[in-house]
Design brief:
The structure is a single chain. This protein is mainly alpha-helical. It has two domains: 3-173, no CATH class; 175-259, Tetratricopeptide repeat domain (Serine Threonine Protein Phosphatase 5, Tetratricopeptide repeat, Alpha Horseshoe). It is 57% helix and 6% strand. It is built from twelve helices and seven strands. A three-stranded antiparallel sheet has the order 4-3-7. Strands 1-2 form a two-stranded parallel ribbon. The protein has a two-stranded antiparallel ribbon with strand order 5-6. Strand 3 and strand 4 form a beta hairpin.
Length: 267
Amino acid sequence: MTPRQACLACLKRTPPSVMEAALWVSSEHDPEFLPEHGLEIIDDLTRQVSASLPMLPASELAQPLLRRLNNLGFQQDDWSQPKPQSALLHRILQRRRGQPLGLAIIALELARRLEIPLEGVNFPGHFLLRIPGADHLLDPCGGRRLYPKDCRELLTRQFGPEMPLKSEHMVRANELAMLQRLSRNLRHLHQMDDDYLAALKDADRVVELGQATTSDHLARASLYQSLECPQAERFDLEHALLLSDDPIQQLRLTERLNQLPPVSVTH
């Protein structure tokens, strides 16, 4: 079984395991890394965190869990130009630094093992966590409580004042959504790092996970263009055209398709 196949198999379990799936993503990019080594680190973390949590009901332990992880050094990367190490889970476990989504995946796994209710929230630009039924969200980077006013401020910092806070921003993220977001993050980071082959692995995974968007196909087409693979580029441009409902974008995609070399036919 390849790392990709093992990754996808983790999401088909009952219940799915986004932690193990993310570790197999790391193995796909770093063949020397074995996911069981990452699980051993998680085992140790579970023991450390469990021994130091206060004697409170499980429903009140999510924030102490996040604060304890922060005290152990798990914090958001402060690089001005993020690197793939910020998103690859095995690197986050080694460095104790990473993007909010990676930190959240670790926290969710510990919460699952310790029977602490906690769920992911696919908030734009900064992945968040929530205790089911609570009136606030939690920042995986330290456990700060975020109420609607704080969420609006977070959106403004990320995207500017023109982006309003919507109910769809507060939707629970299932395991597949988390792995797809992780794959998109890695695709972007590898492309920014000029590692187009690594970025292509992530782009392929995004599409393979299903419900790929116009932007997903355009991102992979851009990679194929950089790698000088016009026929593969055409495939994604055609799919992007089928998915697009923007007339201007449709026109631009049609023009771009017409500029590609014709499809070669073999007899």
